[in-house]
Amino acid sequence: MSYKFNKIEKKWQDRWRQEKTFFVSENSNKKKFYALDMFPYPSGSGLHVGHPLGYIASDIFSRYMRLKGYNVLHPMGYDSFGLPAEQYAIQTGQHPALTTRQNIERYRKQLDKIGFSYDWSREINTSNPEYYKWTQWIFKQLFNAYYCNDLNKALPISNLINYFSKRGNDKINAECDKNTPKFSAKQWKNWSEKEQQNILLKYRLAYLSNTTVNWCQELGTVLANDEIKDGVSERGGFPVEKKIMKQWSMRITAYADRLLSGLSNLDWSDSIKEMQLNWIGKSKGVTINFLLENHNDNIEVFTTRPDTIFGVNFLVLSPEHHLVNKITKIDQKDYVDEYVKLSKLKSERDRQSNVNSITGVNTGAYAIHPFTGKKVEVWVGDYVLASYGTGAVMAVPCGDQRDWNFAKHFNIKIINIFKNVDISQKANEDKNSIITNSDFLDDLTVSEALEKAIKIIEKNKIGVSKINYRLRDAVFSRQRYWGEPFPIFYKNESPYLVPDSCVQLPNIDKYLPTDTGEPPLARAKKEDWNVFYGDKMEYDTMPGWAGSSWYFLRYMDPRNDKEFVSRKKSDYWGQVDLYVGGAEHAVGHLLYSRFWTKFLYDFNFIGFDEPFKKMINIGMILGRSNFVYRIKGTNKFVTYEKHKEYQTTRLHVDVSIVDKDELNIKEFKKWRIEFKNSEFIFNKNGKYICGSEVEKMSKSKFNTQSPDDIVQKFGSDTLRIYEMFLGPIEQFKPWNTNGISGVHNFLKKLWGLLHNSDGIFTVSNQEPNFQELKSLHKTIKKVCSELERYSFNTVVSTLMICLNELIDLKCNKREIIQSFIILLSPYAPHISEEIWEKLGNKTSIINAELPKFNEQYLIDKNILYPVSFNGKTRFKIELDADLNQKEIEKEVLDFPKTIKYLEGKVPKRIIVVPKKIVNIVV
Ligand code: ANZ
Q: What separation in Å is there between the alpha carbon of 356 and the centre of ligand 1?
């Protein structure tokens, strides 16, 4: 019987489903292990071979940990709110819930065919109200909380209300908006409900505030910075402008320090840690006050280099700074207004990266230098960001490149404070404009000078030391339909929490903004909402990262309708022990879920404050794309060899109609209606050869390979092994199927070893010999040590070597095969279950025990004897070191190669030098 993988795989997938083989429960006295994949967004195009790479790795590891005796939680679900389903709904009018459901079904079918050991009874889906009611619940907890800087944790907002009514906010050390006024208990009590609510919003961890956003009128929504390219929307190329809008935000900045310090305990790649570190961007510095000339206000700047204060030439305000309007002199007003207007059109990224196009304008106002008492000009420049520090800088051209560029551009005289001339090279070029002036810096190192500067500044009450973070509060509002509704209603323009458990997404007629520019949910009439309170419901929905910030907790207790997760279950499963997924979420999902975990920990809802202990970032599988070259303005295509002779446009062509780079012309004409009558310029062999390139595997590049085809042709065990065999899991690697038949042959050879020529399963019950045990134990040792360091690809070659050795030894002995199959089972679970059953086992191989490695078999007891004929060495033979002369002679004479070299002659003499050589004289 040949290896009928299709039949075997179906049989076991059915059996696993029927017997609920992968069901896990927390009622276990085994040690737990939690292996998690970054759950997919079920897109309309289904899975390609790149998607399951990480899933296969985590599945192998989960199965391995089960064999090691752990109780393993290995769940899967869907991150199913998001833009593609909504776009599709806008185009076709189909409800996104419907397309999402269809896509999920398709994904599930594809996943099921790959033989994953997921406990599907724990499946979750973020767009299901049963799930998102708990996302809303977490939002409510965040709304009802503030951050206490004394205890360094989140606390109930009711504590704060209590405190305000007793003592105002004078002594409270809590995170709050910059513009929070000081007030007394008496003031608090005299305020209206609305005024009190407004104050509380300045403290809540989920809060509503005026935020500067990138508004795109045509798309009717706010865009993230990375959705804007060169000042226009990436999608559609529409203008984007800065606009102040009321938006929900999350006060993640309160957690900045804990998000930083927590990194040190995580077993994550250095590059991801580094990205989080930079994103959080902790800077120690000072805020310094500059009095304005003839004005009551003063300008507060943030600097990390207070030691350079004697080098201040001028101050620069960001265009959005609240003083710009107030202090600008009449004759400068038109210029300043125009400048402020123009800078609104630029994204923050453009403002910071365009070092060559320096822009700015003088306000005509002056500030007073706190030490020298001299006048310094106040400028406006968009390289200063409103949202960082205080939105104002003291410009020190001889210390800071951007200030230097600014000064040079506007011809401002540069002060040099570095007495010993060590200033930037450019400054040296222009010595005439340099005035030397320093007080702090004489003979001190930078850190000594800094320390001294801070002391003097604080003593003179000119400024205070301050830690600043680059991290911003996270905008949590989207003007979209297909996301979680907020559990919020408005009364008298103040937001309040909906008391019921869930606000469901109402049905609406169109998934577009209203004519007046309100979000799609504003289309819902009162009766369309399942609950309705106050004057109106919140029309924004939550961003994509809401549901994914806590999903790993829901898997622990997915059907609990009383709590988001019971404390007992989250205590049992604890942190994710192994998290597998791409590196693209480094500062999004991975930061937000750390933040929510810390928050839930503060309120004692869970007992750990970091979600993912160990993480592996999988490298992308790249696709090989093919191209055709269309001669501009024609429907004629020229072969790759000649394309440079013409002006052409390069177009992706579906790799499935290309064979070894040769285009199938017939299929090409059928592929798209516009190519029906296309003409071709062929190469000298009359062929059309396509260009090629390795790039990201993607539907839009027509270079995807579906796992379904491979499963159909070779089976999923082959697919699983092959994906691992491609190379180290963390590396980017191109997909090619050249080696796949080699992997498939490996499984066929295994099948062949265990079936006789009549196709009957046969194993021997003989005791294994030393040689066989040595091969097995070497393999046990290597498979385990490689897996423990997540080297999934090298395990495959180890198993292949072992099988080849067993075949050479003609070993089909039960004891050896049984252990080998257990080692293989995480990679090739179907064939392993089949053989396991044939070996007479009654329960699934996942309940087997990992074979124990025995060092004794690796101690080399054997000797490799060179065997020569008439003094000429012909081959080597491995023999037990304990054999005596007679036994050695017999082993050598019986050996097939000896018989071959004797060519039927009888040896005249056999010389055996024990432990050295054998020489046969013929
Ligand atoms: C004077 C100075 C002298 C500065 C010098 C640097 C070097 P990090 O380390 O990133 O925190 N800065 C402050 N607020 C800013 C804003 N809103 N937009 C743009 N730049 C801003 O950088 C802090 C430094 O960046 C501050 O220290 C300030 O320039 C500038 F030799 O002040 B420094």
A: 18
What is the per-residue pLDDT across 880-910, written as a single tens digit (0 to 9) for each?
888 888 889 998 998 888 988 998 899 999 9
The Cα angle at residue 746 between residues 745 and 751, in degrees rounded to 5: 90
Q: Which of 280, 388, 426 to mutate to test the pocket of ligand 1 (most atoms within 8 A of CB)?
A: 388
Position in ligand 1 atom list of the atom nearest CA 283: 11
Helix (H) / strand (E) containing 167: helix 157-167
Out of 278, 279, 302, 398, give the residue to mutate to test ligand 1, the one with the largest number of ligand atoms within 8 Å of its CB: 302
Token duo for residue 811: 């070993």
Q: Which of 264, 159, 188, 235 is nearest to 610 (CA)?
A: 264
3-state secondary structure of 246: strand
Ligand 1 centroid – CA 574 distance (Å):
42
d(CA 512, CA 402): 43
Alpha carbon distance 584, 226 (integer Å): 13
Distance 403 CA to ligand 1 centre (A): 9
Could you report the average pLDDT of every consecutive run of 10 residues in the chain (922 residues)? 93 98 95 97 89 97 98 98 87 92 95 97 98 98 98 98 95 92 97 97 96 81 73 81 89 97 97 95 95 93 91 94 95 96 81 78 95 92 92 92 92 73 39 42 73 87 92 91 97 94 93 86 96 97 96 98 97 98 90 98 98 96 94 95 95 94 96 94 97 90 91 97 96 89 96 94 94 95 97 97 95 97 98 98 97 89 90 90 88 89 91 91 92
The per-residue pLDDT for range 114-131, each reduced to its tens digit, is 999 999 999 999 999 999
C-beta atoms surrounding 469 within 10 Å? 18
Nearest residue (CA) to ligand 1, atom 26: 303
Cα(719)–Cα(740) distance, rounded to whole angstroms? 8
Identity of the residue numbered 646: Y
Token couple for 550: 């806590």
3-state secondary structure of 884: coil
**Residue that is written with structure tokens 């021997």 in the block:** 764
Q: Over pLDDT 90: what percentage of the chain?
A: 75
* Per-residue CA distances from 627 to 323, 646, 651, 693, 702 (Å): 57, 15, 5, 8, 10
Q: Which atom of ligand 1 is nearest to the CA of 308?
A: 3
Could you tell me the pTM of the whole model?
0.86
Dihedral of CA 189/192/197/200: which sign?
Answer: negative
Report which secondary-structure segment, H or E, holds 496. Answer: strand 494-497
Report how far residue 807's alpha carbon sits from residue 820's, in angstroms, rounded to the nearest whole number.
13
Task: Work out the angle at residue 551's Cα, subtended by the Cα atoms of residues 550 and 552, and round it to the nearest 5 degrees.
Answer: 95
Handedness of CA 553, 557, 560, 563 (dihedral sign): negative
The residues facing 211 across adjacent strands are 245
Instruction: Report yes or no: 410 and 360 within 8 Å, Cβ to Cβ.
Output: yes
Ligand 1 contacts (CB < 6 A) are: 283, 302-305, 308, 318, 384-385, 388-389, 391, 393-394, 396, 399-400, 468
In whole angstroms, give the CA distance from residue 305 to residue 69. 57
pLDDT value at position 439? 52
Indicate which residue's Cα is closest to atom 10 of ligand 1: 283
Residues 6+ apart with CB under 8 A from 843: none
pLDDT at 160: 97
Mutation to probe ligand 1, out of 290, 305, 390 (largest number of atoms < 8 A from CB): 305
The residue nearest atom 19 of ligand 1, judged by CA position, is 384
Q: Would you call 13 helix, strand, or coil by DSSP?
A: helix
φ/ψ (deg, to 5) at 109: -60, -45
Cα of 402 from ligand 1 centre, angstroms: 9
Compute the distance between CA of residue 32 and CA of residue 555 in angstroms, rounded to an integer.
14
